[in-house]
Amino acid sequence: MITGQHYIGGHWCGEPQSTNTSFNPAQNAALPWCFAEAGQAELHSLTEQASAAFALYRYVTASARADFLDTIAAELEQRKADIVSSMVLETALTAARAENELGRTCNQLRLFAGELRQPANDCNLPALPERQPLPRPALRLAKMPLGPVVVFAASNFPLAFSVAGGDTASALAAGCPVIVKAHNAHPATSELAAQAIAAAADKTAMPAGVFNLVHARQHAFSEALIRHPAVKAVAFTGSEQLGMHFQRLIWQRPEPIPFFAEMGSQNPLFVMPQYLAQHTESFASQLAQSVLNGCGQFCTRPALVFLPKAAQAVKAQLITLFSQAQAGAMLTAKIASHYRSGCLALQQTAGVSLLAQGQGDESGCYTRPRLFACSANTFMQQSVLQQEIFGPATVLIECTDVTQMQMLATILQGQLTATVYATETELATASALLQELALHCGRLIYNQMPTGVEVCAAMQHGGPFPASTDSRYTAVGSQAVQRFLRPLCYQNFPSQNGDTA
């Protein structure tokens, strides 16, 4: 079922190359699937087909786009067994995780479909020809799709943030054709998802080129795609280093375009003393589960935990939990190598202690969980502590009191989430801390771990830099569609005339 080809303009094309194989991180071994490599010809075809599709797709009704999204979800569900099997092989994630992520992917497609069937009313102001001292013309504020959107699939969510994920779903809902650059860590899973979208496009008679998938291991192709004048927006989920490289390329374009990147976050937790005294055991268990889940490869994993200095009991429990944890396979050998080097740099930082590490071998894709600790003063002095280490590690920061916690909050970088654990009494007196944290995050949480993101209209998955490149928008939830629309005001047109979309 895996062809290893690109999907461009409604056709599968390209010759798979024996050097471009899929990989099994659990076995540290190559899988039998081979994939094509995109070049200049594919770049020309992709952009030409997506541009031609936009000329038609922008006129497709909201109802028809909703049917398209619903059909994609149905096609994904029909391929559930193959998709789950492929994802487990390519990622070392569990079948239960794959099934849950597939369900979330289908749910968010249907969420956008539902939004399209119940669109928000345009702002429509009637003419006031008799108004003094000047008459007012008729004014209607509508939204226009931007044009072809490039989506870079994420490594850590092969479904929900990849080929058929939220970026693709929201761009298609907006009326924009999509070009997905498949992630090299899960190309087979990417193709299976693309097959579902291709089948849905055929069944709902969407324009050829409305969705395209391309495989490319060479960074030069991704750079050329971002620079191409036919591309009108880019969505990316990944590292801060690569995200900022893409951002600089966009700034250098003759026509800069919108770029939404969800990048790094440490998702700090602030734990008040009364709460911790009452919930020591449950908090330790929840924290360890949140950090270790999926081998720590969640963008909302809590990597900084600000604790009262006297929190010795919870520290002892966490040492036990982390020491007993087994090494796990990360998504790729490169990600595992970065994790190990990041942990080594942290361990060698003055004032930082390695409290515990897990059991097992660390070769290839495998890594051991780690628990670190430092003082509040060390956190202020060592900038390395504000650099995300992607994987199953967290740092406990010991604070003398809540006032010191508030002071440390002021130096935090932008985050996807920030969490406060407190009793109701403590929460009532923590307004200064909450107000400060609100300046640094996209989602403020009370007494819950940050892992897990509800897909709904009220969700904000983004935040101040470096959590994202534009804190005004979200990558999750129905508001994500706004990234790929622009306002257009119609002035002095008769009612419902002058529409171009």
TrEMBL record:
Query: What InterPro entries does the record tag this protein with?
Result: Ald_DH/histidinol_DH (IPR016161), Ald_DH_C (IPR016163), Ald_DH_N (IPR016162), Aldehyde_DH_dom (IPR015590), Aldehyde_DH_Superfamily (IPR050740), ALDH_KGSADH (IPR044151)
Which keywords label this protein?
A: Oxidoreductase
Instruction: Extract the Pfam families matched here.
Output: Aldedh
Superkingdom, according to UniProt?
A: Bacteria
Keyword Acyltransferase among record annotations: no
Annotated ranges, domain Aldehyde dehydrogenase = 18-463
Sorted alphabetically, which PANTHER family does this protein's record hold? ALDEHYDE DEHYDROGENASE-RELATED, SUCCINATE-SEMIALDEHYDE DEHYDROGENASE, MITOCHONDRIAL
UniProt name for this protein: Aldehyde dehydrogenase (NADP(+))
Q: Which organism is it from?
A: Rheinheimera muenzenbergensis
